Structures are given as C-alpha cells and as structure tokens.
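In the current project phase, the collection of sequences with tokenised folds has grown. One resulting record follows, to show the layout:
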Amino acid sequence: QYIVPESWKILATMNSYDKTSLYEMSYAFMRRFAFIRVDAPDTDLEEELQKYNELWDKDVDQEEIEVVADIWERTNNAVEGRKIGPAIAEDILGFVAANSRDIDDRATDAVINYVFPQLEGVRKNGDIVKKISKADKIDESRLRAVARDMLQVKFDEEN
C-alpha cells in the first residue's frame, strides 16, 4: 500500500492527435486532469533549434541545423493546424548528425523515418509532403516515391 501526499503531482505529455485516439479514456477520468495546450514554436525555427540543441548537446554542424530547421518549418507551415513539436525535430537532428552519408540522403531518410509516420491518416498529408520535397537538401523524387507507397499520396500530375 502506498500513501500519496496531497502535494504529489503527475505531469505527462500527449499531442492532440494521440488524445483523440484515446477514445477509451472516459470523460470522468479526463475530468481529473488539466489539459494545458503547449503550441509548437512557429517563429525562426533555426534559432529555436539552436537553443534546443544547447540542451540536447548533439554534435551537429551549422548545415545540419539549417537543414533540420528547414524541414521542421516546411512541415509546420504546409497545412494549418498540423505541426510537429521539438521532440520530432530532436529525433531528426540526432539522425542527421549520427550519420556520415551525403546530407541529402540523411535529410530525406530523416523525413521518411520521423515525419512520415506522423502523417499517416492525416488529411492533406500530400500538401505537407509537397512542401517538404521542395527543400534544398531533400531528394524530391525519392521522397515522393516513398510518400506514394507509405502514405498513399497522389500528386497533381498523377490524378
């Protein structure tokens, strides 16, 4: 038996898409928690990424920061109301930094590995893929090919 003092608090995080899929969580249970919205940053993501990386302490160079910030910004500005937060950006940055292949290959793989799973079942995911595929360090043809297969995205020229 555990005695929990009144001063005990629990903090947890959940994105809104995860929350909507937790239909089994009853409203009576949800009533016992406060849901505090924390928006994803949307201004100067390169500067934000620099600040975050000071905490994450990943061994990255300026080009890697710029590439990941561009992917993050394109992902967050392609469709209204659909953003990814710093946790995914941290995963992308770690992936890009831990690999010595060409930056285009690393960036493209990072989008496929970390952003695409966030887009499964999301309306207008094709718009997000199109915006990301135009980034300087992304292999557009490979990204689109994977999007067709993984996300069932049809591009304008294919309709």
Remarks:
- Residues 103-119 form the longest helix (17 residues).
